[in-house]
Design a protein that fits this description.
The complex is a heterodimer.
Chain A: H1 16-48, H2 51-72, H3 80-96, H4 98-109, H5 114-143, H6 149-202, H7 210-229, H8 231-242, E1 246-252, E2 257-263, E3 266-271, E4 274-278, H9 282-294, E5 302-307, H10 312-317, E6 325-330, H11 333-341, H12 343-348, E7 358-362, H13 365-370, E8 376-382, H14 389-392, H15 397-405, E9 407-416, H16 424-436, E10 440-448, E11 452-460, H17 480-485, H18 507-518
Parallel strand pairs in A: 5-6, 5-8, 6-7, 8-9
Antiparallel strand pairs in A: 1-2, 2-3, 3-4, 9-11, 10-11
Helix pairs in contact in A: 1-2, 1-4, 1-5, 1-6, 2-5, 3-5, 3-6, 3-7, 4-5, 4-8, 5-6, 6-7, 16-18
Chain B: H1 2-17, E1 31-32, H2 36-44, E2 50-61, H3 65-76, E3 82-85, E4 97-99, E5 104-106, E6 111-113, H4 120-129, E7 132-134, E8 142-143, E9 154-158, E10 161-164, H5 174-192, H6 213-216, H7 223-229, H8 235-249, H9 258-266, E11 280-282, H10 288-295, E12 302-303, E13 306-313, E14 318-324, E15 330-340, H11 347-350, H12 355-362, E16 366-377, E17 391-394, E18 402-404, E19 416-424, H13 430-439, H14 442-454, H15 460-463, E20 464-477, H16 487-493, E21 499-501, H17 504-507, H18 512-527
Parallel strand pairs in B: 1-20, 2-3, 2-15, 3-12, 9-17, 15-21
Antiparallel strand pairs in B: 4-5, 6-11, 7-8, 9-10, 13-14, 14-15, 16-19, 16-20, 17-18, 18-19
Helix pairs in contact in B: 3-18, 7-9, 12-16
The chains are: A alpha/beta, B alpha/beta.
């Protein structure tokens, strides 16, 4: 710096080099301003869905807040440079931590508190917008001493727009793919700190107590860096909050998002956010799935499990010593892998995947069955509920035709069939569909506390008779006496008329959608 | 600062919704079409004299649906001395198909509505192929479910949103809805109506429909005129009916005979034990599945890359001069009968000594079409507020929407799909439309297709891996007002002792059922099973 400041506290006449430095700051300020806006818009549409609405409202609030900031700038009358530096630090904090804050807020509030989350979102967007709206007027006023208004407006706005352009390109192509939203906002927060430091340097001779400002910069900068280091943990923490319990595993595979949680002795598996089992009562579900049919088969040898990648049905099946071979067909290799290798999970399924009797096939069950010629004494059909047309195919008459074609003459198949209480017509639609391909059906149900009242269907070529005894010991739920009661349906679960679910009508998905929509579990 | 931020933000928002996976993509593709060189050669009549001769009882020119249906019927009746002469390297005609690593896909016709109960031979054919699995003679046969179009069958993008079915409903006013209901009700009346000759008012093949003037008089006006005459002026109804005309006939409802327009809505009464009347049979490769079933039993009779360039009617036989595109030699086939089962605009170049027939053939008009097959990744982006259906149509669009070739797959997940996009270059002036089609380059056609679909799928272009485009200059004939009583068409349908025409060009409308019936009729004539000619 060559030109010393005048005696007043007003900013002096910055020379050429200094002006260039300030223009560079404008460029950075503009990029940061746009990044925070884009982060808020992207995050809100990511978390809340409906991106057009989210983007439009976030941008609207942000612009309004910028207007408010510009208007408020007239109330800043003294120590412009100092105010500007403090302002940069405030932007650095609020903008830099915005993504992290929104993630955490969403995790705390959860999916059910959309309104509360939106309140936090728009408040934050308003604060950042207002601060960003203050920046450019302040910079212009700092520079107004040395430039004509014509030059000033032209130059400042040029760099402002250039900064915006740079970010608009970098954000979708570089920043989000490589850094993610949380890191992107933190990095740009650091850029704001950099601008503040630069301003301190440029105006060091006219600033009073520059050391205090430097300390403030250091504090903000360090906290942002700390944020960067913990970004990974923050993401995981917010996910844990969302699932109430501690997330011990989470992975997005080609097919689904697998999340495992742990709370004391309760392990839970979620697929796409839907509970698949809780270790506290899954034995009820799986004992009821396997034993009523398997205990009724004389000398079962060859077993097929479709779905059931958690291996819990396998655990029950392998209790029968006559069984020679079990083939498990699951779509998602990642599922069967983690249930084979994770210590806690393989304990849960009694190391079923390590049994020499078990072979795992990673395939689409429909396609695989279509290409098979083998017969099976026992077939377990354990797919997720028919929430969409893709899954609806696995409950269709065409699919049950394949099941019938692979079921040996005296064999039995059991099909998990959603809740006859909450989705009564869906349940009886599955029963009718199985009957439509010429199989005999024996519907039954049991109570699984974490699910509610749950339904199954035994399908067979020959009439099914509940076994007098259960051939294996060591069960926690099923007895021969309870077994016979499962086939009685109280009034509120008894059969209702329902059409056959075909590939060309997908009736079941319609029933299911109506029933779970109107009457949550 | 504010306005630019706003604009930028809005412009970016669609890209940002999927920013993690958006990479600017460039895709390639090929411009395809029927063998044009051969057509050109035909007009030039530039062929070597025949160097060998062959004998056959029946020579069939063209192995499309009509030609192969004729061969199928002849074979069923122990007439095995047949030669099917096909210009292209593959059989199928308009029902041809392609295949890539993702799926087989159609290049033309791609579905068959459930046949009417009285369409006995077609049902018999379907039973032979396994498409009908039981009760073929009953009113409600059991169909192979894998061939019935999986649900959801159709959706329509209208007023910024997808709705189920193609009949406009979302965002319509009370009166617009009422008009569509009144129209549907009237079509139901027509569907159930019988003429004074005790024939159904509208049926398939159309030649079996009633001749009662109260129905055939509808042939004197256009479908648009008919709607206005009923006092139906609302835009959604006109779009709906116009869409049906463009989709089935390739021309707008302002050019289509009202009789034919109503025929589309009122002629289909087919039932199934396991499907509703409005459901259709379809396959990944479209109707090429059906043509393959027709071709399989007569593989030995089919000769491909054979260009028939001269037919002479002699006193007791017919000579057919055929240029082999592979060996570049001409062979003269001497046949008792010829079935001409090719588009009739080629007949004048081929048939030498029957001026009245060639003149009649020259009056046939054809609509040009464009079909594109798009390989895409990340199919989820096509879902919107409703999941992807088999047929996905955009309201107020230049195209006819797209069909998902993989729709009949039983598997749960697809990483990639093939979409078959259709556009009838509907114009009042078909020649101009055809010229525009041929003037288009791959780039210009590709761009207009993407632009059309982007209304519903803003990010589509980023997910296209490849786009092949097929130009059909003469895709199909279309029924103009007066087509029912058209002299030329009647002449083409008349039995000639040796030359039999079997083509939808002669039927008047271009659908699988008509093509099939044309072939069967020609075969019956040869076998002496038709006592009288039909029109």
């Amino acid at each position: 710096m060559v030109n010393p400041a005048g005696p007043s506290h007003r900013p002096g006449n910055p020379d050429r080099a200094m002006r260039q430095a300030l223009f560079a700051s404008v460029f950075i300020i503009a990029s940061c301003g746009l990044v925070y806006e884009l982060v808020a818009g992207t995050l809100s549409s990511y978390l809340l869905g409906d991106s057009v609405t989210q983007f439009s409202t976030v941008i609207g609030v942000y612009l309004f807040a910028m207007g408010a900031g510009s208007w408020a700038s007239k109330y800043i009358t003294s120590a412009l440079v100092r105010r500007f530096i403090e302002l940069e630090l405030l932007v650095a904090i609020s903008g830099g931590f915005s993504a992290a804050l929104l993630f955490l807020a969403f995790a705390q509030i959860g999916y059910n508190g959309n309104v509360a989350f939106q309140a936090v979102l728009y408040l934050l967007v308003f604060i950042i917008g207002m601060l960003v709206g203050l920046e450019i007027p302040l910079v212009m006023r700092i520079l107004e001493q040395s430039l004509s208004l014509k030059e000033l407006v032209s130059r400042v706005l040029t760099f402002d727009y250039l900064g915006a352009l740079a970010v608009s390109l970098a954000f979708p192509l570089l920043l989000v793919p490589h850094l993610g939203l949380m890191r992107t906002s933190l990095v740009f927060g650091l850029l704001n700190v950099l601008v503040a430091l630069w301003a301190i340097h440029l105006f060091r001779e006219q600033l009073q107590r520059p050391r205090l400002l430097l300390w403030q910069c250091l504090l903000v900068g360090l906290s942002l860096i700390a944020g960067l280091l913990f970004a990974e943990h923050l993401t995981r923490y917010s996910e844990e909050m969302l699932f109430e319990d501690r997330v011990i595993f989470s992975k997005t595979t080609r097919y689904q998002r697998i999340v495992l949680t742990q709370w004391h002795d309760d392990t839970r598996l979620f697929l796409n956010g839907n509970l698949q089992f809780s270790s506290r009562d899954e034995y009820r579900y799986h004992e009821a799935l396997v034993h009523p049919a398997l205990s009724a088969i004389k000398q079962p040898r060859n077993v097929l499990v479709l779905g059931g990648g958690d291996g819990l049905a396998l655990r029950e099946i392998l209790k029968y010593p006559t069984i020679e071979h079990v083939t498990l067909v699951d779509l998602d290799r990642e599922m069967t892998d983690i249930f084979k290798h994770n210590i806690r999970l393989s304990q849960l399924n009694a190391h079923a995947f390590s049994s020499p009797k078990v072979s795992v096939v990673t395939a689409d069950a429909f396609v695989w069955l279509d290409q098979q010629k083998d017969f099976f004494d026992f077939i377990v059909v354990d797919f997720p509920d028919p929430t969409n047309f893709a899954l609806g195919k696995l409950y269709s008459s065409s699919f049950y035709q394949l099941v019938a074609a692979h079921l040996s003459q005296h064999g039995l198949a059991v099909i998990q069939s959603t809740s006859p209480l909450y989705a009564r017509q869906s349940y009886w639609c599955i029963v009718n569909t199985i009957q439509s391909v010429g199989l005999l059906t024996s519907p039954y149900h049991t109570l699984v506390p974490s699910f509610g009242e749950w339904g199954y269907v035994i399908a067979s070529h020959q009439p099914y008779h509940p076994p007098q005894q259960i051939a294996v010991s060591g069960l926690r739920f099923m007895t021969p006496e309870t077994l016979t009661t499962l086939f009685q349906f109280p009034l509120d679960m008894q059969a209702v008329p329902a059409e056959v679910n075909r590939l060309n009508n997908q009736k079941l998905v319609h029933y299911y959608e109506q029933e779970w929509h109107h009457q949550g579990p | 600062m504010d306005r630019r931020t706003f604009l930028l933000g809005l412009a970016l928002s669609p890209a940002l919704m999927h920013c993690q996976r958006s990479t600017p993509t460039q895709f390639g593709g090929t411009l395809l079409g029927p063998n044009h060189m051969a057509g050109h050669q035909l007009r030039q009549a530039d062929f070597p004299a025949f160097s060998s001769t062959q004998r056959t009882k029946v020579a069939i020119v063209g192995a499309g649906v009509s030609g192969m249906a004729a061969g199928w019927y002849l074979q069923k009746h122990q007439m095995d001395d047949v030669a099917l002469l096909e210009l292209e390297a593959e059989v199928g005609g308009n029902a041809r198909s392609g295949k890539n690593t993702i799926s087989a896909y159609p290049w033309g016709a791609h579905y068959l509505p459930l046949p009417n109960h009285d369409n006995v031979l077609l049902k018999q054919f379907l039973a032979e192929t396994g498409a009908i699995t039981a009760n073929v003679d009953s009113h409600r046969p059991l169909y192979q479910e894998r061939y019935l179009c999986f649900a959801p069958q159709e959706r329509l993008f209208i007023h910024g949103q997808w709705q189920e079915g193609l009949r406009p409903d979302h965002g319509l006013g009370h009166r617009e809805r009422a008009e569509i209901q009144a129209f549907e009700k009237q079509m139901q009346v027509f569907r159930e109506a019988t003429g004074r000759d005790n024939k159904p008012a509208f049926t398939i093949p159309l030649a079996a429909s009633s001749h009662d003037p109260q129905f055939t008089m509808l042939d004197s006006i256009t479908m648009a005129e008919y709607l206005h005459g009923q006092g139906w002026h609302s835009a959604p109804l006109h779009w709906y009916v116009n869409y049906a005309c463009r989709d089935d006939y390739g021309m707008p409802h302002t050019s289509i005979s009202a009789w034919a327009g109503i025929h589309y809505f009122a002629s289909r009464r087919g039932q199934a034990a396991n499907a509703d009347t409005d459901q259709v049979l379809t396959w990944p490769q479209g109707n090429a599945w059906l043509t393959q079933q027709l071709a399989n039993p007569q593989q030995d009779a089919i000769h491909t890359r054979q260009l028939v360039h001269a037919i002479q009617l002699e006193a007791h036989h017919v000579t057919v001069d055929v240029y082999d595109l592979t060996t570049q030699q001409t062979t003269r086939w001497i046949a008792d009968h010829v079935i001409y089962a090719s588009p009739l605009h080629t007949l004048p170049y081929v048939l030498r000594n029957d001026p009245s027939l060639t003149q009649a053939a020259q009056t046939i008009r054809h609509a040009p079409w464009l079909v594109a097959n798009l390989s895409i990744n990340q199919p989820d982006q096509l879902n919107g507020n409703l999941p992807l259906a088999w047929d996905n149509v955009l309201y107020d669009s230049a195209g006819l929407g797209y069909v998902v070739a993989n729709h009949q797959d039983t598997q749960r997940y697809h990483d990639q799909l093939v979409l078959t996009y259709y556009r009838a270059l509907a114009h009042s002036d078909e020649h101009q439309a055809r010229q525009q089609l041929y003037a288009g380059t791959w780039t210009s056609l590709q761009t207009s297709i993407v632009q059309d679909l982007q209304k519903a799928h803003p990010e589509l272009s980023q997910h296209i891996l490849n786009m092949d485009i097929w130009r059909w200059g003469h895709a199909m004939t279309y029924p103009q007002p007066g087509f029912l009583t058209n002299q030329a068409r009647q002449l083409l349908n008349h039995t000639h002792p040796q030359l039999h025409i079997a083509h939808t060009d002669a039927a008047g409308i271009s659908i699988f059922e008509e093509a099939f019936a044309q072939g069967v009729r020609a075969a019956k004539n040869i076998l002496g099973k038709n006592n009288h000619s039909t029109t």
